[in-house]
From TrEMBL:
It catalyses: 4 Fe(II)-[cytochrome c] + O2 + 8 H(+)(in) = 4 Fe(III)-[cytochrome c] + 2 H2O + 4 H(+)(out). GO terms for cellular component: mitochondrial inner membrane. Its cofactor is Cu cation. This is Cytochrome c oxidase subunit 2.
């Protein structure tokens, strides 16, 4: 989850988020270099006492300021396209979960397990246990196994929602009548928080997303207990 006065992204918990962080740092360095160069040119032009009216017709400068930006954009586009391809790649997921957005809660259905489905509501402040976070904790978490490809099918029942977990690098719109999908792999055990990222009404800020990644044997025990309760 985000921390107070946090300036950067949350720590990555999936390979996709790690790639997104690397690309962010790469793009930020390019922006810093360009900004420094432009500032230098402005300072030189303002402070210099030399003028040359023929500089406006320089073919060399025309070529440089055409090809240099094109080269920079190419250096940014290639890793960006690679990450987009990785994010869209879904190859033999170990688990498929359907996340349905409602006003204002989420419901989850484990399609590989018969009758394993539940609703996930935000835990009221007065019911929070010590160590739980206000407006982020849910009464039922979406539990997934660690280091297993998980495909999430995202849709909505009423209005537009968006299923997003920053630490896992996933954000997918939940559109009524449409089934979108996103995949992720949790590289470490933990609890990862997200929130609906599409303004969906009065209680938009009160439908958190909680993904709990656990070892495979713990996930199997959890799923067995859930099926017994049902």
């Amino acid at each position: 989850m985000a921390s107070p006065a946090q300036m950067g992204f949350q720590n990555a918990a999936s390979p996709v988020m790690e790639e997104l962080l690397f690309f962010h740092d790469h793009a930020l360095m390019v922006v810093a270099l360009i900004s420094t160069f432009v500032l230098y040119i402005i300072v030189v032009m303002v402070t210099s006492k030399f003028t040359d009216k023929l500089i406006l017709d320089s073919q060399a400068i025309e070529i440089i300021w055409t090809f240099l930006p094109a080269t920079v954009l190419t250096l940014l586009a290639l890793p960006s396209l690679q990450i987009l391809y990785i994010m869209d790649e879904i190859n033999a997921p170990h688990l498929t979960i359907k996340a349905m957005g409602h006003q204002w809660y989420w419901s989850y259905e484990y399609t590989d397990y018969e009758n394993l489905a539940f609703d996930s509501y935000m835990t009221p402040t007065q019911d929070l246990a010590p160590g739980q976070f206000r407006l982020l904790e849910a009464d039922h978490r979406m539990v997934v196994p660690v280091e297993s490809p998980v495909r999430t099918l995202v849709s909505a029942e009423d209005v537009l929602h968006s299923w997003a977990v920053p630490s896992l690098g996933v954000k997918m719109d939940a559109v009524p009548g449409r089934l979108n999908q996103v995949t992720f792999i949790a590289t470490r055990a933990g609890v990862f928080y997200g929130q609906c990222s599409e303004i969906c009404g009065a209680n938009h800020s009160f439908m958190p997303i909680v993904v709990e990644a656990v070892p495979l044997e713990h996930f199997e025990n959890w799923s067995s207990l859930m099926l017994e309760d049902i």
